[in-house]
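tool_call predict_complex ligand=glutamine
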Amino acid sequence: MKNLKKFAAVILSLAFVLGALTACGSGGTIDTTANGEPDTSAAEEVKPLVFGTNAEFAPFEFVSSQGVIGEFDGIDMMIAKKIAEANGMEAQINNMEFDSLLIALQNGQIDAAIAGMTVTDERKEQVNFSIPYYTAAQVMIVKDGSDIAKASDMEGKKIAVVQGYTGETVVKELGYEYEAFKKGTECVLELVNGKCDVVVIDSATAATYVADNEGLSIVEDSEAFGEEQYAIAVAKNNTELLEKINASLEKMLADGTVGEIAVSYIDAQ
Ligand code: GLN
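tool_result ok
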């Protein structure tokens, strides 16, 4: 948990830097008809802002009976809702596999992807990213008492990762054998059942799993696992939306909104 506070501190300092850079945010507009009368049909005309996500990544996105956008809850969902509101729109969620998000952006099925998505060079070839809003890192989840104390101790161990997550990329780059699963929960189940020795996954999500399951702990190795930045992805040709998202994010980082949202979900764990 101490570590999560550190990540929250990183966001807050990022917010501070951006605060110095940002000039203004976006405001709402009042629609009027040609003769200047308020347009009463405006509410119906407002197009939803469709965010794609993969609601399997608490505390960023998960399904809950009391979600902030329909049944969807989490840090990203709150951010998405606020970005839409700041632009006079309503956020809608399209929940899909993490691996499908970039394609869904490219074919126009979603307007933006918000999914604890790490900015990578490979992904940047396919989509554009907003300014980053969260700093994370890969960590290892092990059973209490494990002899894994650093990344190189994973050699020869049974490693579980989620397919398509940066955790998979990192383990691949280290040159270790691994098994890739569809969901983080499946990886953690393997670990709990003693079918694997270690799960490599993003820090805040790892903390959620450790809080929810007895007998697990987190092992960090900042030399092996560098910092990752989460950002919102949009289609390459949609610079108008990217600018709107960046303006809203800058404002929310500068005034501390993003930091407050992150801390509230992380503290609730
Ligand atoms: N940050 C990781 C990635 O971008 C995992 C994201 C996620 O599962 N939602 O691959």
